Amino acid sequence: MNEFAVSVKDLTRTFGDFTAVDHISFNVARGEIFGFLGANGAGKTTTIRMLCGLLMPSSGMARVAGLDVYSAYEQIKQRIGYMSQKFSLYEDLTVRENIEFYGGIYGLNRRQIRQKTAELVQYLGLEKQVDQLTRSLPLGWKQRMALSAAILHDPDIIFLDEPTSGVDPVSRRNFWLLIYELADRGKTIFVTTHYMDEAEYCHRLSIMKDGRIVELDEPRRLKERYGRETMQEVFMEIVNRKGEQ
Amino acid sequence: MAAIEVEMLRKQYGNLLAVDNISFEVSPGEIVGLIGPDGAGKTSTMRMIVTLLPPSGGQIHFQGKDALRDMSLVRANIGYMPQRFSLYQDLTVEQNLRFFGDLFDIPPGEQKKQMEKLYAFSRLGPFKQRLAAQLSGGMKQKLALSCMLMHHPRVIVLDEPTFGVDPVSRHEFWEILHELRKEGVAILVSTAYMDEAMQCDRVGLMYKGRMLAMDTPQKLLSTFPGELVRLPVRQPEKEYAWLCEKLGDDRVQLFGDGLHIKLDDALGRQALADVLADRPGTTGALQQIKPGLEDLFLYLLEEQHE
Predict the structure, then answer these.
(1) ABC transporter domain location, by residue (chain B) (predicted)?
(2) Residue from A142, A170, A178, A242 whose CB has the most chain B CBs within 10 Å, to mutate
């Protein structure tokens, strides 16, 4: 049994003569909130697609939930949850119907779906809205619901690809409290974000630039090492400086 | 004369008052920012200003003229970048620009001049032959902005233009806005990023259709009541829950690996230190800090909930 939730060594992916991900290595511990940062086009999404079993690496090693991405990509999909900024809830289904739909997709039986629906609705405080169309919910609530739908099958590792884009500070905090709670229950969270204040909620951060990981540390230590007050300043310095070399 | 002047503007959808009698103006050479939670009415306000949504009440003046009577004047002279803009993915950068130039009947010679300027602005010059589909997120945003600048609008309205864009690309995007401001363009922009709001000349905070406050960032910040301290913590969510219970959740906010706590007459520094003494070893030393726009935003929203 592998002790890491995600373990990556020299992972590489090329498209033609373009190297999107270039020999990256890192480990993510169970229950860790791991922030995966980088400029647009740095290779984050390509990496996530490989880790989710959606894209074969060109070379290198990657294990997710102890499973090899080359051979066990189908099993990996059952052990992970995934939510992106373009999360998909059916706007013209009710809250209940959406949960039932995702339960069905993840292969839960009727009894499990009924039980999960009740649990989730109570957990999210959506009792009054359960039979309303999803369209009528504010974006922040939809986001929390989309996250909940992504973890209906009780996965060990949750991939969040810019989950909070365009959300206001209040909703983002509620979302992060939910993430902390999941981590507390032993779930591993792998999250990308462009909000640098939000990056500071992560236990550790990696910063990608041109396909490589150029920094990996706790936010507090990164700020100390760069002598900066905020991750925003650290990020700008790293991405700009290393880009000029 | 104001570029945009909004007076007692109102939009009602059935029972929902999406925009509730707001008034403000945007002057040439000024960047006015709108912030607020989802559903606050920012998008509806912008859509009314660009004449895509009829108001339920109130007045909009565009460069001194009644915008509701003279919609074609507004449309010909305003630049609008909606939240979900559309570029032709199968056209190149240059073809997209030309398309928008043609749309506004800009003569070819003038288009060429404006394109050269926009390439310099946006640093998209080296990519003019690239298909829009093959641009990165930040470059697409800059191309969308460039497209809406092809007809030299003196007034532009941008609805969360940097949605999903990394910090470096956002910085470049805002450099363009600052250039436009210098040229006297009036800019109305909504954003979920507080660092962008800080760069505006004036910022309005909207909530449930109302304008809770609008002023320069510095003046807004000076309205923050009491003092603010930061408490570094090891486990933010646990210390946050604990302190909310002790102090009430309107005083404590999560900020990365620390908490921001509001002090005032009812809770002084010593009283807070006494509370924290109950839980030794979990936190660092209190630091006095200046409130930021996000602190003020959270405070004003808490106040609305009471």
Answers:
(1) 4-233
(2) A170
What is the average per-residue pLDDT within B116-127?
92
Same structural domain for residues B230 and B205?
no
- Give the count of Cβ contacts less than 8 A between chain A and B: 98
The predicted structure's pLDDT at residue B282: 67
Percentage of chain A lying above the pLDDT 90 cut: 53
Residue B297 belongs to a domain: no
Range of the domain at B155: 4-221
Instruction: Judge whether B164 and B195 are in contact, CB under 8 Å.
Output: no
Residues of chain B neighbouring A199 (CB-CB closer than 8 A): 256
**What is residue A2's predicted lDDT score, i.e. its pLDDT?**
52
B72 with B117, same domain? Answer: yes
Residues 6+ away with beta carbon under 8 Å from B139: B124, B127, B169
Q: What is the pLDDT of residues A181-234, one digit of tens each?
A: 999 999 999 999 888 888 999 999 999 999 999 999 999 999 999 999 899 999
Any domain includes B300: no
Q: Are B186 and B154 in contact (CB under 8 A)?
A: yes
B128 shares its domain with B188: yes
Contact at CB, B192 and A170, closer than 8 angstroms: no
Sign of CA dihedral B11, B17, B21, B24: negative
**Count of domains for chain B:** 2
Q: What is the pLDDT of residue A35?
A: 96
Q: What is the DSSP string of B137-177?
A: HHHHHHHHHHHHTTT--SEEEEESTTTT--HHHHHHHHHHH
Segment 156-195 of chain B within 8 Å of chain A by CB: 160, 163-171, 192-195
B-chain residues within 8 Å CB-CB of A239?
A: 166-168
pLDDT per position as a tens digit, A171-182: 888 889 989 999
Q: What is the CATH number of the domain that holds B156?
A: 3.40.50.300
Is the distance from CB of B210 to CB of B39 less than 8 angstroms?
no
Is the pTM value of this prediction over 0.90? no
**Closest chain B residue to A231 measured between Cα atoms?**
B256
Q: Which residue has the higher pLDDT, B192 or A164?
A: B192
Contacts of B39 in chain A (CB under 8 A): 138-139
| Same domain membership, residue B41 and residue B95 | yes
Residue whose token pair is 């074609």: B72
**The tokens of A241 are what?**
């400086």
**Looking up tokens 């600052």, which residue turns up?**
B178
Contact residues for B217 (Cβ-Cβ < 8 A; gap 6+): B197, B198, B200, B202, B203, B293
**For residue A108, what pLDDT band results from cuts at 50, 70 and 90?**
confident
CB A207 within 8 A of CB A179: no
**Residues from chain A contacting residue B168 (CB–CB below 8 Å):** 39, 235-236, 239-240
> Pick from B209, B257, B119, B135: which is nearest to A35 by CA?
B257
Judge whether B216 and B223 are in contact, CB under 8 Å: no
